[in-house]
Design a protein that fits this description.
This protein is of the alpha/beta class. The longest helix has 17 residues. The protein contains seven helices and eleven strands.
Amino acid sequence: MPRDAVYFLSDLHLGASYFSSPVETERRVVRFLKSIAADAAEIYLVGDVLDYWYEYRYVVPRGHTRFFGALAELADSGVKITWMIGNHDIWIFDYLPSELGIEVVDGTLVRDICGRRFFITHGDGVGRASRAFRFLRALFRNRFCQWLFASVHPRWTVPLARSFSNDNRSRHPVPDAYRGRSTEPLIIFADEYLSAHPDINYFIFGHRHALADERLSPTCRAIILGEWIDLCSYARISPGAPLALHRFEE
């Protein structure tokens, strides 16, 4: 089997306490990674891979051992792994890139993959968002605020972060409802961006927990990847074949 396929998945939210069995959820993701190891050339993790993560200077949070081990094994075998930072896993600094041998990208990425041009981003930093969301995003990314947060003992910050995540999940259904091309902020952004950059063939988004595939032009599609809380959805592309959405079913 040629090793030339590229995979995209997002919004795994590993470690979230609202999972009935967080460990089994992690094992399911690891089984998926093992299932694609034979043909994967690249894997793009498009944000919110972890429900919460903060790297202190000398310590890192507990958990995710199986998942990190699977990523390291894939990277060691030659699979290129790119992790796009989301709004839940903002605080990745140097530990994961150096220990796992992966690339971490904050923001947007335009890259040629399998002969097509991709625009990839988690989605929290593009399109229309509420003023409250924009304020929180700026606050969480502020260096001084990060320094203040790091000065508080993890026994307080970790429960606070998990409580915030649980509260957010209780107010938003999973999977989220797709709003349609005319009202979906990510698709509206993609349409506008495409008008100025007509060479884009695929837009890849996460964040919304919706699963969508919209054709924006004869040569361009916009993909929202869904999530791994209920859908276990992902996208795959290989040379000579179009990108397709799938669901991992064992």
